[in-house]
Each structure stands twice: as structure tokens, then as C-alpha cells.
Amino acid sequence: MSQQPDDPQLSGAPSVFAALIFYGAMLGVAWLLGVVWLDLNLLVWPEKLQGATAMHAALGAAVGLGAVVASRLVERYTAWGRNLGDAFAGMLGPMTPGQVQVLALTSGVAEEIFFRGFLQQAFSTAGWAGPYGDWVGLVLASVIFGLIHIGPERDTFRPWTYMALGLGAIFGLMYLYTGSVLAPVIAHITVNYFNLGHISRQALAEGEGLSPEDER
């Protein structure tokens, strides 16, 4: 009997509890170093803040959906994209809708507050950054963001690292443009929500003996 997506006992699926602990710790570090030590506002960059909240949300949703469409095209038309999708399906396995939602929400919020609200702002305003501080912060935060996205099989997951580097730069530019983490947070949640759901369905289809084309 095959397991259904809403089965709470899905072997190999990411642990929601572990994710909450990990991303909670990430937010804790950002708060201690960013707020307590550096006196930063992790949600907005006051000197850069511009535009309405609705505009920030719309920008984030548009960029996120664009990234999702791009990832589907890459998977459909490139061998490395298909290999990457298969590797993620095999590594993460089927997930419940609740798991997908929690993982997308926690990762999107915690990572953007940490990498944009804390790291990018801290690097940009550091005394050594000088007149190019905005770009120093953008580049450093994006590179570190890309480097944490390294999979267990480097050849297979290397494109994921490059894509994370590129998306990190785009998220950083949105942060610079709006002065708020809202746009990158919504973009990040959107990307993770749709991609994790896609990976889960692909893993379930493979477990039932269907081809990737059947799942898509």
C-alpha cells in the first residue's frame, strides 16, 4: 500500500520539530548579534525604507512566482535540472501539506531576517565597508547564503548552490530597494512552498512507480 501525502508517518521527510529548532536558533543569533549587540532593526532598514507595504508584498510575490516558473523550465528542459529534482525527491521524500507549509514559512522568515535583515545590513554599515557599503553587504550576504546551500553530492547539487547565490543577490537587491525584509521574505516563502510541494509530489510519484512525466 502506498503512502498518501497526508500520512503523518512519512519516512525520510524533513522533521518539522528539527526545522523549528534550527530556524529558531538562527533567529536567536540574529537577535543577539543584530539587535542587542549592533542595535539594528532586523525588519526594516530605516535609512533605505521606501514604498508601501502592499508594494513590498506584491514585489515579493512576483519575484517568487517568477523564480518558481524558472525552476520548472530548467527542470523540464535541462538534464542537470532533472537530476537535481530527482536528487531532492530522493533526499526529502514525500511530505505532508503541513510539513511543506511549516518548512516554507520558517525557512523563508528565518533565513531572510538572518541574511538580509542582519548580515547584509551589518556588513553594509560596518566601518570598513566605506562608500561602497551597500554593495559590500549585498555581495557578502549573498555569497554566504549560497555557500550554506551545498548538498551532500557536490556535482549533483552544485547548480542548487549557484541558484541560491543568484536568488540571494535578487533578494538582497529587493531589500536594498525597499528597505524592508517583507519582499524577500514573501519571495523566499513562495519559492520554498511551491518547490517543496513539487518535490513532495515527485517523490510520491516515484514511490508509486510513476515516471517524472506522469507526476508533472
UniProtKB/TrEMBL annotation:
Species of provenance: Lujinxingia vulgaris
A single GO molecular function term of this UniProt record: endopeptidase activity
Superkingdom as given in the UniProt entry: Bacteria
Keywords for the protein's UniProt record, in alphabetical order: Hydrolase, Membrane, Metalloprotease, Protease, Transmembrane, Transmembrane helix
Example GO biological process: CAAX-box protein maturation
Record carries keyword Membrane: yes
Location of the CAAX prenyl protease 2/Lysostaphin resistance protein A-like domain: 100-194
A Pfam family hit: Rce1-like
Record-annotated membrane-spanning stretches: 20-40, 52-74, 132-150, 162-187
The protein, known as: CPBP family intramembrane metalloprotease
